[in-house]
Amino acid sequence: MNKKTVKDIDLKGKRVIMRVDFNVPMDKGVVTDDKRIKAALPTIKYVLEQGASLLLMSHLGRPKGGVDPEFSLKAAAEVLAGHLGIPVKMAADCVGPEVEAMAAALKPGEVIMLENTRFHPEEEKNDLELAKKMAALADIYVNDAFGSAHRAHSSTEGIARFLPAVSGFLMEQELEYLGRAIANPEHPYIAILGGAKISDKILVVETLLSKCDKLIIGGGMANTFLAAKGLNMQDSLVEAASLETAKAILSRVADKLVLPVDAVIADKFDAEANSQVVAVDAIPAGWRMLDVGPKTVEHYKQTLSGAKLIVWNGPVGVFEMPKFAEGTFALAKLLAESGATTVIGGGDSASAVKKAGVAKQMTHVSTGGGASLEFLEGKELPGVAALNNK
């Protein structure tokens, strides 16, 4: 990674404004999963240990263009205070005279949580006047919010134009591991793509095919590839608009693609549906494929054997329904036992390895679903591009 990190800059006596990703799940004002807050702790603690004072900013949810108490970061600030063992002051806004006064009075080792950046509609427009007001609160900008790095907003890209801008440890780690998948991967390198639609991931498919040795395709995406091969997928989700794309990819690199050979099928899209296992070319009328079958899992096992690097984005079945989660969980366990460097691309895949109980056995589980997908597409992320180079 050629971007400066918090270790490349003198923080002593400085006021630091840090973009974190505290967009955490909430229920009636209570944080139900603090994984993202915990992920920011190493950088937060480092900044404070270096003798700096700290202002934290984040978005939360999608407030409708103004202040909405339901989307306040107060609960996140309380959880953070519990983890740090020190008070975290809560600001009523993320800019303005009151916040400026609080920032000016901040002493080394003290922390303020700024209120939701999206209470200002200008934030998502990357308004530079708003960014300038944010920058005026501090001496140094740190971005540790990889999950928001694919968005050019005032708090992720705009502010970096007005202050020395460096990455935090979480951002650094994300760029290092996801970068391995794109820049100089170890071989054998196996990529796994799941999820519903090819159209959402066509750029990722193309980028990964140019880098990896084998590409395992599962989930709804696999149905479209199997249909492109001429199989009757019956009532399975098939993306008609992507059939020609799938055919073109098959004609070019069929030997690189690993598609399901059997399926767990259901007579309706329902957790309580009747199910059975059949070969992918023997799906009866009125049935649909909702998971990969045991022979496919065995096929995956052989494909992954001896891999040095495995990157996984997207489940291979409808894993939200227990009956159709077996394939995804079996795949998660194969990765855990593989001995390879395993990089999990956020979102549903991160949730799947957690539910399978093997998250801790993965080399890296990304905190950014959309951001990791765009990174794997080979796109430059605005929030990363804006940081100072080493």
Topology:
Elements (H helix, E strand, L loop, with lengths): L14 E5 L6 E2 L2 E2 L3 H15 L3 E5 L16 H11 L3 E3 L6 H8 L6 E3 L14 H8 L4 E4 L10 H5 L6 E3 L1 H14 L6 E5 L8 H8 L4 E4 L1 H10 L14 H11 L3 E2 L3 E5 L8 E5 L8 E5 L1 H11 L4 E5 L12 H11 L4 E4 L2 H9 L8 E2 L3 H8 L5 H4 L5
Parallel strand pairs: 1-4, 1-7, 4-6, 5-6, 7-8, 9-10, 9-15, 10-11, 15-16, 16-17
Antiparallel strand pairs: 2-3, 12-13, 12-14
Helix pairs in contact: 1-2, 8-9, 10-11
Task: Explain what the structure shows.
The protein is α/β, with parallel strands linked by helices and 390 residues long. It has helices at residues 35-49, 74-84, 97-104, 128-135, 154-158, 169-182, 202-209, 219-228, 243-253, 294-304, 326-336, 347-355, 369-376, 382-385; strands at residues 15-19, 26-27, 30-31, 53-57, 88-90, 111-113, 140-143, 165-167, 189-193, 214-217, 257-258, 262-266, 275-279, 288-292, 309-313, 341-344, 364-365. It folds into two domains: 6-169, Rossmann fold; 176-376, Phosphoglycerate kinase, N-terminal domain (Rossmann fold). The strands form four sheets. The protein has a six-stranded parallel β-sheet with strand order 5-6-4-1-7-8. Strands 11-10-9-15-16-17 form a six-stranded parallel β-sheet. It is elongated. The model has no long low-confidence stretch (mean pLDDT 95).
